[in-house]
Amino acid sequence: MAEIRIQVNGEPKDVADGLNIEELLRSLDLQPRMIVVEHNGDILRRERYAEVLVGSGDSLELVQFVGGG
């Protein structure tokens, strides 16, 4: 399977080619409904995670919601 290099929270990461944002999050053991994604400088709406493909050189910032009180 081919891989591409992306930036995740400022760190280089090799991931499978052809993933969408939702698949990428799941491959990182993250729950998509608990993550805010900035993709190449644009904040994505959760309903778009399954349609936006990750490409070589993309930059992603992932912010995870943490519950507590």
Features:
single chain; 69 residues; mainly beta
Q: What does this entry look like structurally?
A:
With 69 residues, the protein is mainly β. Helices cover 10% and strands 36% of the residues. It contains one helix and five strands. It has one helix at 21-27; strands spanning 3-8, 11-16, 35-39, 42-43, 59-64. Strands 2-1-5-3-4 form a five-stranded mixed β-sheet, with helices on one face. A hairpin with a 2-residue loop joins strand 1 (3-8) and strand 2. The longest helix has 7 residues, at 21-27. The termini are far apart. The model has no long low-confidence stretch (mean pLDDT 95).
User: Using only CA atoms, what is the Rg?
Assistant: 12 Å
Measured as a percent range, the helix fraction is: 10-25%
How is the main sheet built?
A: 5 strands, mixed
Please provide the ordered H/E string of secondary-structure elements. Answer: EEHEEE
Give the strand line-up of the largest sheet. 2-1-5-3-4
Number of helices: 1
The general outline is globular
Quaternary structure annotation = single chain
Give the N-terminus to C-terminus distance in angstroms: 43 Å
The computed structural class is mainly beta
